[in-house]
Amino acid sequence: MSSNPQDDADRIRLKRLAKLQTPSASPSPKPSASTSSTPSSGTPLPKPKPTPTQTPQKRPSEAPLPAPVPQKKKAPAAPAHLDLPTWEHETIGHVFNVTLSKEAAENSAWEVVWLKHLAAELEAEDPIAPRPIRLSVDIADRLLISRLELDPQSMSDDLEYVSVLASLPPGQTIFEYLLGSWKRINAAKSALNKKGYPPLEVEKANAVLEKLRDLVISYAGLTLQEPEMFPQPSGRAVGPPELVAPLLSLSTLTAPLLSTNSISPNSLSPTEVESFLQDLVKRFEPEGELDAVLGPVVCQLCFHESLFRPEGIAGSDASWRGVLSGLEALVSIKPIALMITRLPQWNPEGATAVNFEKVSLLGPLLRQGVFEREWPTIANTYFSRPKERSAPDLESATASLRGTLKSLQSSLFLVFNTLVRASPESREAVLQYFARVVTLNEKRAGMQVEPDTVASDSFMVNLQAIMFRFCEPFMDANFSKIDRIDALYYAHSNRINLKEETRINATSEQAETWRKEHEDPHASPPNFISDIYYLTLAMNHYGYQKTIDNFEELAKQYDEMNRHLEMLQGDGSWRGTIAAPRTEAAIKAVQNEQEQVLTQQYSYQVQLADPELVFRSISFVNFVSTWIIRLADPKHTHPNPPVELPLPKEVPVEFSVLPEYLLEDIANYHLYAVRSSPQSLELSGKAELLTWALTFLMSTWYIKNPFLKAKLVEVLFYACVPWSGRSGLLNSTLNSHPMALKYLIPALVHFYIEVEQTGASSQFYDKFNSRRNIAYLFKVIWDNPMHREALKNEARTKMEKFIRFVNLMNNDVTYLMDESLSEMSKIHEIQTEMADPSWATKPWQHRREREQTLRGLERHASGYTQLCNSTVSLLKLFTAETPEPFMAPEIVDRLAAMLDYNLDALVGPRCQELKVANPEKYKFNPKQLLSDILQVYLNLGVHGEFARAVAADGRSYRKELFERAAAIAQRRSLKSPQEIERLLLFVTKVEETKATLEAEEDLGEIPDEFLDPLMFTLMRDPVILPSSRAVLDRSTIKSHLLSDSTDPFNRMPLTLDDVTPNVELKERIDAFLAERQNKNTAYDKPAEEVVKMDIDAE
């Protein structure tokens, strides 16, 4: 060593600098072999500062101008050179933290590991080599193996070597040591590139570092595969878990809390993970060993214990986020993405519908959710006892969980999308994954499926959310990519099995024949758009839509519990009896069940009512409905321009063979959307919904299933029901959209007729539900003159069909009026019995039975009365607008008999039997019902055929009923004075017609000139109309003028004062009557005495 004091001071200072250097700093060797931790001699040593006396100072007056800055910082003309052997020796020692020199180890306080045995081996191999032996890349492999084989837990009789073993880091795993070496290689490379050495020297030095890197990475990969190959500390998880840990640290929640200062020198920081993975890929991917190295790591990450905890994504540590972050980092490297889809666990053979989400690689992440059945801890934590919670509290819980779900699904889509884009092979693997889920869950859409035999709702909905995102790029507003969807996909691909599926309008044999005709083994496989589109349709059917059905079933369960609760509570007479404890326990049990159902409903709403998911669902449904219409459109151009209706009678085969669930799922989702979140359709979707429904209502022969057709009307009905104090979603659209104005009336009339025969055993009752919906739709559009004109046109141009429609309407009113009034009578009977004082003395069992009977009657009555109200209302509207079809011989007599019979029930002697407590509970409004029936009489009263039919009704017609009805209408303000006057004039005409009929029996045929040309009754006071010169009875024209101030024959303006009495004709008529044999008829009394109003009638 030099004895120069200045050199000694420099050396001491450099030692201290080396001690303070961070792990990322590049070590610099010094001349002495015993000071390997000092900087390299290849790096210019810092020179001591020159003493001030070495440069004479000039006087101020002689001071030169300051030199330009560039001249002061001008780089040396020749760059420093790297002493490669020395740098190599010291760098290898620093990277591996080893030495072959005992003195060097002692000088480092045994922080540098002395490889005593290897040193002896090398010295024995080359006795004449300089001592200590220099480290080089040629012996790097032996150096590393020698270091890895050291076991700090082993015992040694070599006292000299005990210090080496004792100095080894306690508890450090092989993988941690190799990570430290890898990080020191990176630091050395960074330092080297900053030194400014000649490029050739840097290139040689980097080659050394790359050899070291390759060696370290090789052993790191080997350790991941066989962690027990080298001595490992006891009690530590070694191998794949050691790489899983830094992958978990990539979570967006934990990464910001980490910093380079808090990361161990022997572990990966979040910023180093990707670089380390890249090195592993570079080393093992070319040799095909990547699966063995990283496969276990991926599996342990994806099956991390945090994904199976009861608290799931609501856990406080949010470990699942780390799993997702680590997975994102892995798939971001293309070879690893490819490797993941090659692993057996990606799409495991032998998996079932139930366990697929637990044994497939991404299943544990995809099954995360909030639904109560799969994650009861989450649902009961966030939504326990919901009736006792405030609305803001529940909304806050919903928002919190919903945000977590969005984060989960967004990250999962990122993973799948990266896999799809990695290569054709990985894309195919993803498609096979989706198809496998569909195949395994084909029974999931069944009516009575056991949840424990199929995939969970959470798993299926998460997949659906991912697939919706895959569809977004080709679902643009202009439908520019719609034709890229292969219409013959089911023949060109076997991903989706349709053998057990019902087709829209084809048998299984027809569908199989079509498939064979179009399959082409040599054709290119369908494009990705087609694959994703059809798989999303299938996933929607087997997964998402079934989840919605499960949610809606909860509402039915809750309603059923409410009815059961009402039955248990009864009138409370059980209190204080021997049955009280049992009844109270039953009531409490039902209430607890209701709380649990509410909790389930709230947990479902977190996901299903998420505005983002609803928007994507509606966009997809709109796209599918447009695509289906385009397929049926002969021009295949819909929606630009829109399809022309009705469609051709010949149904395209490619449309017929489509699975029926395509149309069914569109209808079911629209039903769910308009009932649960109608606001989601406000901005988009209304026109598409209307177009889709009208297309197939106008062309019902395209759909074989009658229940599916009925759903089209049901969707339109619910879309017109008011919500949140606002008018129905489609109200405005139905009254303004060109397609609605042109096709809605014909479509509704057509389906009203068609639904009479569905072919199902329940068709008699099914038709009433559809016709109730149709009646409501007519009411929504009735005030629109364009729709009423369309109705008149339908009646004019298709009279035979319209008469059939009217006949069915009349049949419905007849049945529903009879059933509803009968139910009211039975309810009245039981309520009267219960109101009697003797009720309390009757046996408890008898009272319970009667109460149960009453509950059943109430359920039935409510349905019947609602159907009755809607149908009678429809009859009222149609008789006002298009009365002519009602005058058909096959209609008018039955219509009159039905009206007379029900008028008798409402105001006749039996009307007291219809009085029930709380009639609004059953939607029973006898006053409105009476008003509607009287309006039908008024609408048709100007037609002689109708008066004649009423007069001919010998079973129910009595003028006293009309007198009583008029009195009630006047007292209850059901009708205006003018309407009451018209009603009484009509009854007068009926009485006269009745007398005419009787006169015909006595005297034979009455001369035509004596008959009123409109009412076909014998005129009593004939008058002449001034413009048309037609002769009518005064009462007839008077009744007509009450509603229409024109001549009924030429539509010229007319008032009652304009008419002229036909005295000569009246005298002849009077003479004719005088000769009649029958007496005491309407013709034997003054007109004003024929009908009177019983103003005192109740």
UniProtKB/TrEMBL annotation:
One Pfam family cited in the UniProt record for this chain: Ufd2P_core
Catalytic reactions of this protein: S-ubiquitinyl-[E2 ubiquitin-conjugating enzyme]-L-cysteine + [acceptor protein]-L-lysine = [E2 ubiquitin-conjugating enzyme]-L-cysteine + N(6)-ubiquitinyl-[acceptor protein]-L-lysine
CDD domains membership: RING-Ubox_UBE4A
Main location: cytoplasm
Gene3D superfamilies: Zinc/RING finger domain, C3HC4 (zinc finger)
Known pathway: Protein modification; protein ubiquitination
Enzyme class: transferase
GO CC, any one term: ubiquitin ligase complex
Localization per record: Cytoplasm; Nucleus
Signal peptide: none
Bias (Low complexity): 22-44
Coiled coil segments of this chain: 544-571
PANTHER family in alphabetical order: UBIQUITIN CONJUGATION FACTOR E4 B (PTHR13931:SF2), UBIQUITINATION FACTOR E4 (PTHR13931)
UniProt family annotation: Belongs to the ubiquitin conjugation factor E4 family.
Protein name (database record): RING-type E3 ubiquitin transferase
